[in-house]
Amino acid sequence: MTEQPEHVDVLIVGAGLSGIGAAHHLQDAFPDRGYAILEAREAMGGTWDLFRYPGVRSDSDMHTLGYRFRPWVAAEAIADGPAILDYIRDTAAEAGIDRRIRYGHKVTGASWSSDEARWTVGYTHEGRAATLTCDFLYLCSGYYRYDEGYTPEFAGVEDFRGRIVHPQHWPAELDYAGKRVVVIGSGATAVTLVPALAGTAAHVTMLQRSPSYILSVPTVDGIATKLREKLGDRRAYTITRWKNVLVSTLIYQLSQRRPAMMRKFFRNLAIKQLPAGYDVDTHFKPTYNPWDQRLCLVPDGDLFKALRAGTASVVTDRIERFTADGIRLESGAELPADIVVTATGLDLLALGGIALTVDGREIAPPDTMAYKGMMLSGVPNFAFTIGYTNASWTLKADLVAEFVCRLLRHMDIHGYDRATPWPDPSVTTGPLLDFQAGYVLRALDRFPKAGSRAPWRLGMNYAQDVITLRHGRIEDGALRFGHRARAGAARAATGPTADAEQVELR
């Protein structure tokens, strides 16, 4: 007799910021519902456990990167990686979520059976393959590859006698004291690394192909501090959260609608913090409009301070090749280096690389359309989390978790055992992420599509999403519901086709 696999009501994949938040929402809404969290790595925290490079920190304020249900009470609004990791771990421990996590469990595939109205999920653990089943599959695995970052092919790498490091795999033993360091890149990781290394290295050069928009923000939010003193942690957190949402939304909307004005605004801010006579238009004037790519935040202007102190510099040029002692640029100049850090971006991975099938039919993510940016067309009882590109990831992650809980409660009330998004054939498709960052553009063809109208768009407006995801109708015509009994009758009459699935769905 074949032993039946373990069954849980909801299976969460990933024990990072999103997964812990999802579990908290789930068990708060359904204390008696069984769930488990499968985590491929051997530690909780996701991004905040993986990245260990010097100075690693949030690129959003913690009043919006923190969970809605658990106030961030530390003084620092821009927090370092260890503080964020402690916050995630403390959240899990206080709620008992840490006891539900199974480490070293890498999910490889998931197969939905309409006859059984459940998923069979395959995973590996300690080199062995196994399965378990669940009623609802909830991916909180982020959207980039954990085992490797993105590094372009550089000519002459084999000639370089120094050390090349990618921030995603920072060696704990790396000694950069007194060394000449070149950081390739101009994004959030690069602008974090440069000032963190500059205090110890002989000199740090940020080598960029083109500039990014960089905004200095205070490490400590003075308004949040005063509100905590007067109103207490929870009320102050809520007010500060909405204050920061509104400010960031205003900056984003102005960047989209009046880009010329905002380009001038960011340029003037940079001029005020750079040394007199600095070539701001070469090194701090991007060719793209604000928020076509993510805005880089630097706490208390630490990058600008390093440039003023002369411990760091910026070079804007293209790489011709590596040499034995550094990097030769297309301009003919050569940058000497003992260590080169390739802060050149991430490699995205759709749906955690998990292979999905529905009733034996393979699901190719690019052939699906994303419902509300969190479910896939034609895929029942399945959700995933992708955060905002123009605001804190957790703002969207919290809303996705709330919607999943609303959906499960709706299914319980009406006795449904499946919910499947089905787009109107008249809805046309486009890229899921309308974002010009290189790491996004390189991978868009691997991801689900967005639709030409709601609810098939990935929303990027938190206030609007609060209304639609927290309070909008569940039965909106695009999300269809069904019962197992009807499924069997439909398949008996029409055969195991996509049409049969539609017959059973309300």
CATH architecture label of the largest domain: 3-Layer(bba) Sandwich
Structure classification? alpha/beta
Residues in helix, %: 25-40%
Could you give the distance between the termini?
37 Å
Give the C-level CATH assignment of the largest domain.
Alpha Beta
Low-confidence stretches: 487-506
Shape: globular
Q: Approximately what portion of the residues adopt beta-strand conformation? A: 15-25%
**Total number of helical segments?**
15
The CATH superfamily title of the largest domain: FAD/NAD(P)-binding domain
Largest sheet: 9 strands, mixed
> How many domain regions?
2
Find the count of extended strands (DSSP E, 2+ residues).
Answer: 25
Radius of gyration: 24 Å
Mean pLDDT: 91
In the CATH scheme, what's the topology name of the largest domain?
FAD/NAD(P)-binding domain
Blueprint (SSEs and pairs):
Blueprint: E1 6-13, H1 17-29, E2 35-39, H2 47-50, H3 62-65, H4 81-95, E3 101-103, E4 106-113, E5 118-125, E6 128-139, E7 163-165, E8 180-184, H5 188-198, E9 203-208, E10 214-217, H6 222-231, H7 233-257, H8 259-273, H9 280-283, E11 296-299, H10 302-309, E12 312-316, E13 319-323, E14 326-329, E15 334-336, E16 339-342, E17 355-358, E18 361-363, E19 370-371, E20 375-376, E21 382-384, H11 393-414, E22 418-421, E23 429-431, H12 438-441, E24 449-451, H13 462-471, E25 479-482, H14 484-494, H15 498-504
Parallel strand pairs: 1-2, 1-6, 2-3, 4-17, 6-21, 7-16, 8-9, 8-16, 9-12, 10-11
Antiparallel strand pairs: 4-5, 5-6, 13-14, 14-15, 17-18, 19-20, 22-25, 23-24
Helix pairs in contact: 1-4, 1-11, 5-10, 6-7, 7-8, 11-13, 14-15
